Amino acid sequence: MKIGNIDLGYRPVMLAPMEDVTDISFRKICREQGADMVYTEFVSADALVRSINSTVRKLNINPGERPAAIQIYGRDVDSMVEAARIAEAAGPEVIDINFGCPVKKVAGKGAGAGMLRNVPLLLDITREVVKAVKLPVTVKTRLGWDHNSKHIVELAEQLQDCGIQALTIHGRTRSQMYNGEADWTLIGEVKNNPRMTIPIIGNGDITSPQKLVEYYDRYGVDGIMVGRASIGAPWIFKEMKHYMATGEMPVISDTEKMTLIRRQIDESIDRIEEYRGILHIRRHLAATPLFKGIYDFRSTRIAMLQANTRDELVAILDHVEKDILPHRNEKIKLTEHNIENT
Predict the structure, then answer these.
(1) What are the catalytic residues?
(2) pLDDT band at residue 25 using 50, 70 and 90 as cut-offs
């Protein structure tokens, strides 16, 4: 699959843009674990034009995370064009336009998925951004605003006519937010539309290597983007790439996984500062599958998510790695043994 001249190979697996998740450290780790391309947190065009420091920092790209896309969002042509030019100067490989964010503070103001209620403006923004920059421009969007307006097949053609070089489709409407099951049937229709010539990337509910391969086979998309399943589990890309290549799951030890989590903590603290860095990483700690299924882990989990200093958090993780993870299955094994002998 190619975006412009960027060759991502056959059946690439990409890290989806996620606010407060896909920071520079997480993106680099995911690339190291096998993600073929990564996307920044979404960047507000208005804030970028006004040079808000916290927004401008989102444009930083580490050489180790390339190829990388900067994703921008906004609700008017002028600010989006200027933001695209600013983002281009930061040196990404791709400029991505967010027409898919469903949260109220974005979509409710007409940006993100809110643009699906104003398709003429959506197309004007896309067309002018494409003309304003030399980099490939892509779009990420949803099936439609609600169940009664799933116009993605027609919209995909219109976006392609604006000059974008790839389209990512999340298989839900804005009204669904992240609820229910992602519907990939319309994503498949877009891909199988003979008028479409640009790469089509599917997104939504890809939670395992097995499902990744199943959806590649079933819907024929050019690429797949992985989002929430990577939170607290950047090794999922290693699992997916290995499974696609061999048909088998790789063995990734708890020690390897813990090393990646510890690295995220350290880099988050070093990048921001101790307390805010810990607050930022809590989402990954709460979501990581590494600690799921451990018997009687609730009190430890609460302590981990309430830690306020690096030393406090590290001490808890030391305890988990030394005293809990090596014995995580003992309760299950004991239960099975008892059942076998009744």
Answers:
(1) 101
(2) very high
Q: What pairing do the DSSP bridges indicate for beta strands 68-73 and 6-7? A: unpaired
Residue 337 lies in a domain: no
What mean pLDDT, rounded, does the chain reach?
A: 93
Say if residue 228 is in the same domain as residue 273.
no
Q: How far apart are CA 205 and CA 203, in angstroms?
A: 7
pLDDT at 338: 38
**Residue where a domain stops, chosen among 221, 246, 271:** 246
Q: At which of 246, 264, 285 does a domain end?
A: 246
Residue type, 156: A
Neighbours of 12 (CB within 10 A): 21
The pLDDT of residue 175 is 86
Categorize the per-residue pLDDT at 336 as very low, low, confident or very high, splitting at 50, 70 and 90. very low
Mark whether 77 and 143 lie in a shared domain. yes
Are residues 224 and 263 part of one domain?
no
d(CA 336, CA 339): 5
Same domain (yes/no): 159, 193: yes
> Does any domain span residue 190?
yes
* Strand spans (E) along 121-271: 137-142, 167-170, 200-203, 223-226
Residue 146's contacts (CB-CB under 8 Å, 6 or more residues apart) are: 173, 174, 175
Backbone phi, psi, residue 265, to 5°: -60, -50
Highest mean pLDDT (candidates 31-45, 287-301, 325-339)? 31-45
Helix, coil or strand: residue 149 = helix
Amino acid at 341: N
Instruction: Report the domain count for the chain.
Output: 2
Q: Mark whether 240 and 261 lie in a shared domain.
A: no
Range of the structural domain that residue 46 is part of: 2-246
Residue type, 304: M
- If you average pLDDT over residues 20-31, what whole number do you get? 96
pLDDT at 334: 37
